[in-house]
Design goal:
The complex is a heterodimer.
Chain A lengths: L2 E6 H11 L4 E4 L6 H10 L6 E4 L3 H12 L5 E5 L1 H6 L1 H9 L4 E7 L16 H6 L9 E3 L4 H18 L2 E7 H5 L1 E6 L26 E2 L8 H18 L3 E4 L6 E4 L3 H15 L4 E6 L1 E3 L3 H11 L2 E4 L6 H9 L5 E4 L15 H11 L3
Parallel strand pairs in A: 2-3, 2-4, 4-5, 5-7, 6-7, 11-12, 11-14, 14-15
Antiparallel strand pairs in A: 1-8, 6-13, 10-12
Chain B lengths: L29 H14 L6 E5 L15 E4 L5 H11 L4 E7 H7 L1 H10 L4 E6 L29 H4 L5 H6 L4 E8 L3 H19 L4 E7 L3 H4 L6 H12 L3 E5 L5
Parallel strand pairs in B: 1-2, 1-3, 3-4, 4-6, 5-6
Antiparallel strand pairs in B: 5-7
The chains are: A alpha/beta, B alpha/beta.
Chain lengths: 359, 255
């Protein structure tokens, strides 16, 4: 019998982590992420896990990094400026091939922004990285509470499979929506043993491990070539996306996360009017479904990106489409009012589609 | 070869010391700290359960594989936070953090303070050589007033750069701290006394009393511009008046 529980997207992220066997959360409160911490604070002690509200996001990422080197599944969560503070630490995690999960509940705007209201402007920082040195995190963007729960479990699996940082990018709308979520531990397959974990050499037959980042002076270039090989392997196996009514479509909407839900409804509205509109939703933002998006864009002939910020995801779409078809953007100016609580409604998306359709 | 059973080994390198070449400058006191830590860990039979976090500083022992222990090379600053996380994940491991005065006293002082406030049950070493040594002798929080460094070309002034950090005295005022001492390794007597303090600091972690802290006054011939043979005189005349050796806190329980 399946269990379905009414929960928010943030609670879904926390429950997904716990059901994946996450044993620690080190984090600092920030809206709109805090409910993840609040749930973990209650639940982790019950399963013998480690929960610690730390002195800032720097400490959160470095503690998560160190904890991951003990071989346990661990995570942290943040938003906007908090994630920006973690950038250096994320870079260190990549240098040391530390497998861990970071949930980012996107904020809007630079600096303190809107103080944690809705928006999708963490995209560039999460997908293209704020840290130094050149790295890729796997980035997954669920669109609802169930998918958030499932995706966090997948994130832990991918982190362990590739020894890499996996980021789950949600936003206020997903985090604060409540839905019935079916809870069960997902099985993804076997994983390599963590024989590199720090547990004291007496527990490892006298062998000791030195973790100080992948680069040494003698093998600097090897670090980069090995990681490029890893990235190509991930690109070949971990592309995830969803399409909706794209067969015979002659107009392509594309959006990720909560804006994909808005576009989903806009497709239905357009179809009611006889407009052959389809939707492409990337789930993995890195690796990005470049060829799949390009093929659909070419077939449709026209692309409209919808994202609730000034335009960040649109850059990746333009890069994928390579100028072969026009790419338009409906950004934050599409909100129904000018406030921090304004929303881009499906009707507004339809209006934009109509103005571009057939031209 | 004939075995000479009446011979007793009285001195040698610690078992933990690997063949990895020491990267420090000739005369640096840093490797002596690694030596004491190794000796005490071996005497207390702790090396097998030790997990160390060695910071980004030229004197943090064991970062490069020069000591046979499970070790994480910390980032510059959060070494103490990283050690805290490892101890929380593996409470039965013996966890050591070691870093320089720049790391613990400047960029990482937040992690240092909060680990002490929480009374995290780890042992932290701060190497005080009054400069940023790995980057070539810049001003550190511990640089003595008046000292010329590459980034204080007119000498450290109280007006501009403020006063030297007294980390061991600071730690002693914080409730979560079980042990705080300042030691040095410039002479055999200082070395032996440092060893006693380090053993005591380790015992606090084993007894789960609280945070243990040992500040180590360490000679840096390269950046001080002093011959290795002159380090003892320099330390006694310049460093110790500002940084007196001693035990500033030693409690068996924190109520």
């Amino acid at each position: 019998m399946t269990t379905r529980i009414l929960m928010s997207g943030n609670e879904a992220a926390a429950r997904g982590a716990l059901d994946a066997g996450c044993k620690a959360l080190f984090a600092y409160p920030i809206t709109p992420q805090t409910e993840i911490m609040e749930h973990m604070a209650k639940e982790l002690p019950k399963v013998g896990g480690v929960y610690l509200q730390v002195e800032g996001e720097y400490a959160a990422i470095y503690m998560t990094y160190a904890a991951s080197l003990t071989g346990e599944r661990v995570m942290t969560a943040s938003s906007g400026c908090g994630l920006a503070l973690m950038s250096e630490g994320i870079s260190y995690c990549h240098a040391a091939d530390a497998p861990l999960v970071i949930v980012d509940v996107s904020r809007l705007g630079p600096g303190i922004g809107t103080g944690g209201q809705h928006g999708q402007s963490d995209y560039r920082m999460v997908v293209h990285g704020g840290g130094n040195g050149g790295y890729h995190s796997i980035v997954l963007a669920p669109a609802d509470c169930q998918e958030t729960y499932d995706t966090v479990q997948l994130a832990f699996y991918l982190a362990d499979k590739y020894r890499i940082v996996v980021m789950v990018l949600t936003d206020f709308m997903i985090a604060r929506s409540e839905e019935l979520v079916e809870t069960r531990r997902l099985e993804f397959g076997p994983l390599p043993a963590k024989d590199w974990a720090l547990k004291g050499k007496a527990n490892k037959g006298g062998r000791f491990d030195v973790h100080r980042g992948g680069q040494t002076w003698a093998t600097t270039v090897d670090y980069f070539t090995e990681h490029q090989e890893l990235y190509r392997k991930i690109e070949a196996s971990e592309i995830r996306f969803e399409t909706y009514k794209t067969e015979e479509a002659d107009f392509l909407l594309t959006a990720y996360g909560s804006m994909a839900n808005v576009c989903h409804r806009a497709v239905d509205l357009a179809r009611e009017q006889g407009l052959k509109v389809g939707l492409f939703r990337p789930i993995s933002l890195w690796p990005f479904p470049v060829t799949e998006l390009r093929a659909l864009a070419r077939k449709s002939g026209k692309v409209l990106v919808v994202e609730d910020c000034e335009g960040q995801y649109v850059d990746d779409v333009r890069c994928a489409v390579e100028g072969q078809v026009p790419v338009h953007l409906l950004g934050i100016w599409g909100r129904h009012n000018k406030t921090a609580w304004g929303v881009i409604h499906p009707e507004r998306v339809l209006e934009e589609v109509t103005s571009l359709y057939g031209k | 070869m004939v075995s000479k059973t009446n011979e007793v080994k009285v001195y040698g390198k610690p078992r933990m010391r690997t063949d990895f070449p020491l990267p420090q400058c000739a005369g640096c006191h840093g490797p002596l700290l690694g030596k004491i830590i190794s000796e005490v860990l071996e005497e207390m039979d702790l090396d097998g359960k030790t997990i160390a976090v060695a910071g980004v500083s030229c004197c943090a022992p064991g970062r490069l594989g020069d000591l046979a222990w499970d070790v994480m090379g910390g980032a510059h600053g959060p070494t103490v936070a990283e050690a805290v996380a490892i101890k929380r994940m593996r409470p039965d491991a013996f966890v050591i953090a070691s870093a320089g005065d720049g790391e613990i006293g400047a960029i990482g002082i937040q992690y240092f303070m909060h680990a002490m406030l929480r009374g995290d049950k780890i042992t932290t070493f701060m190497v005080n050589n009054a400069c940023y040594a790995a980057t070539g002798g810049q001003l550190a929080p511990t640089t003595l007033l008046g000292t010329v460094t590459t980034t204080s070309p007119y000498g450290r002034s109280a007006d501009n750069e403020g006063y030297p950090l007294h980390a061991a005295e600071l730690a002693a005022h914080i409730k979560g701290v079980a042990y705080s001492a300042r030691v040095a390794v410039y002479s055999p007597a200082a070395f032996q006394s440092a060893k006693k303090c380090i053993r005591k600091a380790f015992q606090k972690q084993l007894d789960r009393v609280g945070f243990g802290f040992v500040e180590v006054v360490s000679g840096c011939p390269t950046n001080w511009g002093v011959q290795p043979t002159g380090l003892g005189k320099y330390i006694e005349e310049k460093m110790l008046p500002e940084y007196p050796l001693g035990i500033f806190k030693d409690v068996d329980s924190i109520a």
